Amino acid sequence: MNQPTPSSLDSNSAGPQRIVIEQVEAPKRRNWLVRLLIVGLVMSVMFNFGVMSAYHEYFANTTPPLERFHSGDPEASAKIAVINVSGTIMPPFTKRYLKMIDRAAEDDAVKGVLLVVDSPGGLVADSHQIYHRLRELETKSKKPVFVSMKRMAASGGYYIAMGAGTKGRIFAEPTTWTGSLGVIIPRYDASELAAKHGVKPDSLKTGEFKDSLNMFRPLSEADRELWAEILDDAFGRFIGVIFENRPKLDEAAVRNLATGQIYTANQALENGLVDEIGFDDDALEALQKHLKLKKVRVISYKFQPGLLEIVTGSAEANTADSTWQRIMESTVPRAMYFCSWAPGIGSLAVPSR
């Protein structure tokens, strides 16, 4: 006997009554307001990051450096300023170094400067800017510059040490690595890898060399000739800066040393690249003696944290380089006085502070 289906049971059917409850799907809650809020929040974050990036100079620290006591006699009127240059020489920290030099130049109480270098080098332009401003300390402000090299003072780090001129003295710690005299433009040839995966360059350009150094195609002979001239120009300037400021070395001697190799402190001393093996205290003592000062107050400079540094809690917040911007800028040709086999990667790192 066939059993009646629930739909066939009604009030006229015999037997027990079965109530059929139909489940009706509730209408979906409209969440357009939530979505709108999320979109608005994302747009707000993007806008604020855009403003910070565009106006980073406004948000970043633009105040002059503050003076702090380093050592010596705190009551002495005559001062020696210690300027520390560490990490990769590149923006935005180049501006800070220049401000320190300017502060020392403008302070009549500062009689001399000790440049402490712990750097593998950096960008050509930035290295030369610091060197140029240091030379002005002696030539214009009549304030001698001595140098103390720490763990590494290579390539651009050695370049800025030439700011001591012919009258200043360069000290290197016993374990210092220096040298690496030369120029490098980072480039990687990924053309075979790209071809293997079906990738090929197809840039829209207005001239033959507009995409020169493109890593997805091999360098042409014309490319090599073009960049050789650029390298030679920067290299020649490096050579000139050294033999102009190292009285024991002529141009031929400097070129023989400029193979890109690292020199130990003892090798650097033997080759006339440095003057003495010693530490910061030895360099300070020698500078004080050179200045003929019986009492001296040794000071250094520091910067107050900028707005971005306070907001983010990071001393590196005002680099003005977002992650994406850093990736994009890593493809930009950069001539560097830099001691590294992979400066394209090294240039992405924030200088140590």
Q: Can you describe what's shown?
A:
- The protein is α/β, with parallel strands linked by helices and 353 residues long.
- It has one domain (64-346): 2-enoyl-CoA Hydratase, Chain A, domain 1 (Alpha-Beta Complex).
- The chain is 39% helix and 16% strand.
- α3 (93-106) packs parallel to α4 (124-139) and α7 crosses α8.
- The protein starts with 31 loop residues before the first helix and ends in a 7-residue tail after the last helix.
- 30% of the residues are buried.
| The CATH homology group name | 2-enoyl-CoA Hydratase, Chain A, domain 1
Q: In the residues, how many domains can be counted?
A: 1
Strand content: 15-25%
Contiguous low-pLDDT stretches (5 residues minimum) are 4-11, 312-322, 343-353
What would CATH call the class?
Alpha Beta
What is the subunit organization of this protein? single chain
Largest sheet: 9 strands, mixed
Helix content: 25-40%
**Structural class by SSE content:** alpha/beta
CATH topology: 2-enoyl-CoA Hydratase, Chain A, domain 1
The outline comes out as flat
Q: Radius of gyration, rounded?
A: 32 Å
According to DSSP, the number of beta strands is: 11
Number of helices: 13
Mean pLDDT: 81
CATH architecture: Alpha-Beta Complex
What's the order of the H and E elements?
HHEEHEEHEHEEHHHEHEHEHHEH
